[in-house]
Design brief:
0% strand, elongated, 155 residues, mainly alpha
Length: 155
């Protein structure tokens, strides 16, 4: 029987698998569905491309936050190896969680500020959106891996 924490790990890993490579293009998949017509045709305009990059970034934010929550719940009231996050008696506690989520919020605010600053240069904004999204996905993967490691240690 799966515990709540195990289910949370499975959900987090499933969300991490929802990247652009797992998205089906309706125009490409329509021939495989008998008797159906394409639902939409992907636009190749620069605005649509920029909207896709922005959507990718916006999707990466809750995944990054969920991975932080998962890592914090796996570390709660256990010895903390990161000296910056150590609370009383070297354990992960409320102060540690506040600091952890403050750092994550600061990273997201920095991404937002950078993207906002580059709004007049579409090429630079496109690069910033892509880099921010993938850094959030990679960070979420690392944090999820850490959480899985922490859960395995507690058994």
């Amino acid at each position: 029987m799966l515990t709540f924490k195990s289910r949370l790990c499975v959900v987090a890993l499933a969300l991490l698998g929802c990247g652009p490579t797992s998205r089906l293009n309706a125009a490409e998949s329509a021939p495989f569905v008998a008797g159906s017509a394409p639902l939409a045709v992907t636009s190749k305009t620069p605005d649509a491309h920029l909207r896709h990059k922005r959507l990718l970034w916006l999707v990466s934010i809750p995944i990054f936050i969920a991975a932080n929550v998962l890592d914090a719940s796996s570390s709660w009231d256990k010895p903390e190896a990161n000296r910056l996050l150590q609370g009383r008696a070297g354990r992960f506690d409320g102060r540690s969680a506040a600091l952890k989520f403050g750092i994550a919020g600061g990273m997201i605010a920095g991404e937002y500020s950078l993207i906002r600053m580059l709004r007049k240069d579409p090429a630079a904004r496109d690069s910033a959106l892509t880099a921010s999204a993938w850094s959030n996905f990679v960070g979420a993967g690392v944090l999820s891996g850490t959480a899985i490691h922490n859960y395995r240690l507690s058994k």
